[in-house]
Amino acid sequence: MSGAGPAAIKKSAGDYRAYRISPGDTNRLAIIFDPVGEGTTFIACVEIFDVGGRTPPNAHLRAHEMFFVLKGEGLAQAGDRTVPIKTGDSLLVPPGSTHVIENTGRGRLYTLTLMVPDEEFAALIRRGTPVELDDEDRAVLGR
């Protein structure tokens, strides 16, 4: 098939690079696609929360952020609302809404996280400390 335009980009679980944004953070982010690596206008990553892990409270000026729970359970706080989340649930956080995602389960919490537009989130992640994915992480990413 000959086609006009750029080719699609395909990656597999072994291609993803993970980072911990700050020392002592209880979550890691495995980047799938982002403006730094692929020139997108968004970031797609798998966020991995250790037991008891949580994001710091944060909000985005223009970006919508979406979390799709791949595995595990937790609580999502956005604005003045707190809701339980579990495997198969999705959460959309609008721009300007302060939010926190927390792992309240007995195992790790994995979310597919998308932010549109990126708002420099990819660059923030990549400035963090590179970390290795373990067998459990690779099993979830390789599903």
Describe this structure in words.
The chain is mostly beta strands and 143 residues long. It has helices at 35-38, 121-126, 135-141; strands at 17-20, 27-33, 43-49, 64-71, 73-78, 81-86, 90-93, 99-103, 109-116, 129-131. The protein has a single domain, classed as Jelly Rolls (Sandwich), CATH 2.60.120. The strands form 2 sheets. It has a 7-stranded antiparallel β-sheet. A hairpin with a 2-residue loop joins strand 5 (73-78) and strand 6. It is globular. It starts with 16 loop residues before the first strand and ends with a helix.
Short description:
With 143 residues, this protein is mainly β.
Total strands: 10
CATH class: Mainly Beta
Strand order across the largest sheet: 7-4-9-3-2-1-10
Distance from first to last alpha carbon: 29 Å
Sheet-strand content, in percent, reads: 35-45%
Shape: globular
Order of helices and strands: EEHEEEEEEEHEH
Helix/strand class: mainly beta
Tally of contiguous helical segments:
3
CATH level-two architecture: Sandwich
Count of structural domains: 1
CATH topology: Jelly Rolls
